[in-house]
Hints:
Radius of gyration: 16 Å
Mean pLDDT: 94
Low-confidence stretches: none
Structural class: alpha/beta
Order of helices and strands: EEEHHEHEHEHEHEEHH
Number of helices: 8
Amino acid sequence: NTATFDLEEFRGAYYIAGNDFAETTDLCASKLLLMKPGDKTVYFWSHYWIPEEKLKNSPDDANYKQWARDGYSTIVPSSSVDSSLVADWQWSLYQDFGLIPYKSGYDNRFAKDYIRKYEEYFGKDSEAVNVPQDAKCLNNPMRRLESDLRHKLVNYNNRYGDFWCFRNTGIKTDNAERIQPCKLKTTHRIDGTAAAVECYAVFEWYKSEFLQLIESR
């Protein structure tokens, strides 16, 4: 989907976040799910973090330096990404655009520092929600995300990093035919997809309440 949008259109809006935190030398991704009254489109505002150390011997084909020049990635001058940086980024969007988290989904691994900082910034009312990384939990949101992508109902601001992660994503099926994301190649990354699926999972759990906030804008 080559459609784009200006974040200014969502000034003061509520969002649902999805966060995929990084192991030592991995990519870290955060997505904000935004919507407009009377509009079925899901708008994603994304950011990525990559340790500088990874750039030296990266086995994948992503141009992380170009992502940084395009403004949606940060190269962290260390060998790892502290998950609290994600909370810092979300707080900066509150300061600059008044964006307010309704809920924030996360993968329980490596999330401790993020949760601590997130609750310092936004309080416990803007709940951080653990999204189990298994097919039982991810099946429905992943199928809905795939359908919305096919019908061009997902506007990710034409960011190549998002497209690249979506393109790298396959499905793994369990014995009950439930699906969850997996990498098509071990050297490629799907962190942006994982963050998007987490957004859809939390949206599914809190859909009515979130849409009421959107329609009241």
